[in-house]
UniProtKB/TrEMBL annotation:
Name of the protein described by the UniProt record: DUF2140 domain-containing protein
Domain of life: Bacteria
Region (Disordered): 222-262
Biased composition (Low complexity): 223-234
Biased composition (Polar residues): 241-262
Lineage, broadest ranks: Bacteria, Bacillati, Bacillota, Clostridia, Eubacteriales
């Protein structure tokens, strides 16, 4: 009996030792590269020129790793919940695949998330089809990660099967195809002569331009009718009632549409303000937002404040101007952009 007990002791010790080693190895795999910190990327002014030239010719723009991460930096800001902090999202390339590196803190533990997959374009959507998700060096079940991601996806993003999609409907460019090749992101654009500068100067969105024109015509018509009625005093009551009723109905409908457009624009400018980094950029967007809010009063003349916006905008560096344009173009609904007409001069 004593011999049997003495034989069991080494076996138990070996099992305990194996468990300790297994836990240590698992912890090492989970916390692999947990100290990783993404470099600070900034939007590059030359990227705008590159995209606009590709757009004008209907060609393909080749984006480097730094340029892709510069675009990401405009949209992504540190994400926090009570337990989780997503510090950054960094893109990289491996062969013809897209790689995402995501350092996080979970309950005060630093961790390193990564994913690799294919990127493509179809039906107006950028599609990311992940091959894997990893925590450190531990591969996580794809279905589990996607399920956790779904409620945290931003507007315009969605899960479709095992893929993450991003709608391009609000972008100032028309994409035909996206793929990765030779360590670069290739973006093929439809031939188009419009650009972000035109958007900021109100040279697009004819539907909203027509609406603003119609709104002005209704105001002028209403004012003219009142003047004529006051000078002649000979209109019949029935005719006056019909005219006033028609004008009131038209003005009400236009005012409602104008209000909705201004609300969309105000929301877009708030988002754009969060996407820029310097005080000067935020000051320009703040002045734009102030003008938009004042435009909710139909008697307000937005052009009286143009000079102050232009003055603030002119003080920005070329880099700041490029970032501001990109932030506004990316966050403001294209159907409301022309309300920004003439706010900046260059």
């Amino acid at each position: 009996m004593g011999k049997l007990k003495s034989r069991k002791k080494p076996v138990i010790l070996i099992i305990i030792a194996l468990l300790v080693v297994s836990v240590a190895v698992f912890a090492k795999l989970v916390f692999w590269n947990s100290s990783y910190s993404s470099p600070k990327y900034k939007f590059q002014a030359g990227l705008l020129d590159k995209m606009l030239k590709a757009q004008e010719s209907g060609g393909t723009a080749e984006l480097s790793k730094d340029e892709v991460n510069g675009v990401i930096s405009l949209y992504f800001k540190q994400y926090k919940t009570s337990d989780l902090v997503i510090k950054s999202v960094e893109a990289d390339f491996k062969d013809d695949k897209m790689v995402f590196l995501v350092p996080v803190t979970y309950k005060n533990f630093n961790l390193f998330l990564s994913s690799q997959g294919d990127v493509s374009f179809e039906n107006g959507k950028i599609i990311y089809n992940p091959e894997y998700f990893k925590l450190g060096k531990i591969t996580l079940p794809k279905s589990y990660v996607l399920k956790k991601l779904q409620p945290k996806l931003k507007s315009g993003m969605a899960l479709e099967g095992d893929s993450i999609t991003i709608s391009t409907s609000g972008l100032p460019i028309s994409i035909k195809n996206i793929n990765v090749k030779d360590q670069k992101l290739l973006v093929t654009l439809e031939k188009k002569q419009l650009n972000i500068e035109d958007m900021l100067k109100g040279k697009i969105s004819s539907s909203l331009q027509n609406f603003i024109k119609d709104f002005s015509n209704v105001k002028n018509l209403d004012s003219s009718t009142k003047t004529n009625n006051g000078s002649t005093g000979t209109k019949t009551k029935d005719s006056s009632d019909q005219s006033n009723g028609s004008n009131t109905g038209s003005k009400s409908a236009v005012s409602q549409e104008r209000q909705q457009a201004l609300n969309r624009l105000s929301s877009g400018l708030n988002a754009a303000s969060g996407a820029v980094s310097t005080g000067g950029q935020k000051a320009v967007i703040s002045q734009m937002a102030s003008i938009v809010n004042n435009m909710k009063d139909s008697s307000y003349n937005p052009y009286s404040e143009e000079s102050s916006v232009r003055a603030a905008y002119s003080k920005l560096s070329p880099q700041e101007k490029a970032e501001l344009k990109a932030a506004v173009g990316s966050n403001v609904d294209s159907s409301a952009v022309s309300i920004l007409s003439s706010m900046i001069g260059n």
